[in-house]
Fold:
Amino acid sequence: MTLTQAPAPSTGIAETPRRTGRMPGIWRAGAARSKVELRAFFRNKQSLVFTLMFPVILLVVFGSIFSGKVAGTDTDLKQVFMAGIIAAGVMSTAFSGLAINIAIERDTGTVRRLAMTPMPKSAYFVGKLVRVIVTTALEAVLLIGIALALFGLPLPSTPERWFTLGWDLALGTVACAMAGAAYSALIPNSRSAAAIVTPVFMVLQFISGVFFPFGQLPAWMQTVAAFFPVKWMAQGFRSVFLPESFKAVEPAGNWELGHIAMVLVAWSLAGLVLTAFSFRWRGPRVR
Structure:
């Protein structure tokens, strides 16, 4: 989770349009903004540690605690948890990190200053999305590497499973990023950002089958979780890392890969629409 932001980040594109007098293109402005976003993230040690390391800490702690088999299967409980924590890592970087980052940039004046430049407004979101994609990919590699090295998590055994890992990770990242950008509209200021974002992050982990086998959760909890993307991401990752026989204990009796893709695409589009209507470049909450 992102708790702090590097001081006074640069807009990164202001100088060039002043010299040329022309509106920067979306691709050039997006590339410039992406460089600024990535540089700010990797230079901020607190952001780097809390965003990337929090899921890693959960993986090491709970991976060391959990033991035994999932009831009715030959699958280790630890193996189920490790597939789920990858979904939690995606939500940490793409939802929590982005929502808190936008709230901080509203308070530090970055959003207002960018609105005064000739930069295409969409370049701001391109930069955020590139930052989220890079950090999420790094997070996934880190979690899978640690799970493989410390707990013996098996890598995907077929090209189809690697393909599923790729699209589940990509769609889940975009869905959580769009949801995070839209959710940032509910955060009144940067001081309350972590308090408003973290409970959602934690509750969705518990009801989405990250810490416990999803099929063992109460029926009402499974119903609530099915409305959110974390449950579907975790199910997709279970189809990648767990034995094929494990799908028998899923609520539908199969992996539902087509359903997973549709839900994540729907969340991406819904988040995009909500962000378009709720994001403000100026206003009482934008300093």
